Structures are given as C-alpha cells and as structure tokens.
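User: What would this chain look like folded?
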Amino acid sequence: MSENPYAPPTAQVADIDSALPDNSNPLFAVGTAKVVVMSMCTLGIYHLYWFYRNWNLIRVRDRSDIMPFWRAFFGIIWCYPLFKRFRQDGEAHGVTDGFAAGTMAVAFILLQLTWRLPDPIWLIGLGSSAVIGLAQQYVNKINLAAAPGHERNDTFTGWNWLAIVVGVIIFSLALVGLFVEVPE
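Assistant: Here's the prediction, encoded as structure tokens.
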C-alpha cells in the first residue's frame, strides 16, 4: 500500500462481462406469425407492446436511462432508431442479412399515417403489421445468433386468443359498416 492517500489504486479490476446473462435473448423474442396476427387483430395496439418490450430489453442490456414506455407510445417517432439498433445488433452478432432500417421506418410511418385516409383506403394501414413482422423476423435471427437456446414466444395464450376474438369482432363490424348500405 502506498503512503500517498491520493495515489490511484494499483489493484487489478476485472472488466464487466457484457455478455447476456443466462443465455437470454438480446431483443424481444416472439414468433413472426404471432406478432403479425396480434398486431392486426388488436388494430395496432400490439405495436405498443412490441416497441415497449424491445426498448425495455435494450435499456436493461445497455444499462441506459431511456424510457421504454414513451418510446413505445411515440413509436412512430422512435421506430427508425429502433430499426437502426436492430441492424447494428445484427451486424454485431454476425447476422449477414441486410436490414434496411430507413426503408422499414419510412414504410411503417407512412402506413401508420393512412388512418386519416377516407374509407376504405385507410385499411392499407394494417400493412404496418407486415413491417413489424419483417422486423421481428430479423430480430429472431439476431436472437438465434446471440442466444441459440433462448425460449421463443410463438404460442398464443388465453389472453392472446381473447384479444384476437375481440379484435376480429370489432374489425368485422368496421368492415360491415364500411361496405353495407343502411336503408334510410
């Protein structure tokens, strides 16, 4: 020990291991079919959950102070940074498939804005579920490369089925209202 109390420490310090704990996935693990079905049947509400889960995992993994709830709530603004992060994570884990983060973000934003279009053109907005599905397909490749033994959530739970049934009923009623003329 040095006599100088202001001298820097001389002990060796181990670096913090940045590997994921217990083979967990770096991003939200969900089946592509499940994310598309849930997004469509909840009329986009599942997007909020999907964005939140991805941002929350990034926050925990990076030990950052981002606010996943607000990034999910304003997903239309934060979709490009998230998609860009997917691309960076893919490159870091050796996923060689190209992921066009900018193109995906533009497609998602434009499809999200179509709800303002007249009937029935606004229905093309449901295509944003396909964008989320393509992004999830890429995320699944990243998860597989980073944590081959991770558990993927691709089964539908009872709550999922309830949301699907309610969503299909609401969507069916909306379609009937769009295309059926009501006699006066």
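Residues 26-166 form one domain. If you want, I can go into more detail on any region.
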